[in-house]
Amino acid sequence: MKMKTWLATACAVLVLAACGHQETAQQQPAAEGKVYRVALNAEFAPFEWMNENQEIYGFDIDLMNALAEAGGFKVEFQHKPWDSLFPALAQGDVDMLISAVTITDERKATMDFTEPYYTITQVVLLPKGKHIQSVDDLQKLSKVGVVTGQTGDFAAGKILGETNPKIARFETVALLTKEVENGGVDAAISDSAVIAEYIKNNSDKGFTMIKLDDFDVENYGIAVRKGDKATLDVLNAALKTVRENGKYHEVEGKYFAQ
After folding, report:
1. Would you say the CATH fold of 120-217 matches that of 35-117+221-256?
2. Least enclosed by CB within 10 Å: which of 77, 80, 106, 141?
3. CA 166/CA 114 separation, integer angstroms
4. 217/4 Cα distance (integer angstroms)
């Protein structure tokens, strides 16, 4: 082979190799060392809540930490009131939300979501002595409590009418369940895993929960700003990894073991 021909061939091989390496790198979400600001409302056990030392922990926290490890990025958690989460994301004050946020068509219009990471449904929490079996029974109650802006609120509005005075709205699940305890409302509507956790921790009080056929199955997703495909790709890739390597199952078992 002539020297010029050999050099040209070698250069071509190097260029193709470089291009191939670049293409491979582009196909993989890159977030190595990046710090993402993650907002949540730590008043929704067992997904996120605060212990006596005001430290945030829960399923969402452990899952996000597992995603960060799998994706090579870092996270900073910020506890915020529920009704401030979505504005904070839209305004760029935070990079993502992981706070048991249900994926809905309405929300997808203004933000993007990862693949679902947890499936739940709405249930009715009933105090001792209260019994219902249907939506008709629910409609006959004097007061039904929900948390403002959560999917329990939407479910109650769908069944009873959004402006129905029978719906009593509260700022947190803790306030809602306390009102059920005190008899201020006849029942409460909230997420199945959250109500199950509450009943488990108050097993001596005679609470029960019931799922009505009118409640749809819902999926939680991690929310990012509309159009932020780079962050979405990083999270989806990390979520796929933790599902495949068993870490997701490990975290799930810690909080939702039967």
Report:
1. yes
2. 106
3. 35
4. 68
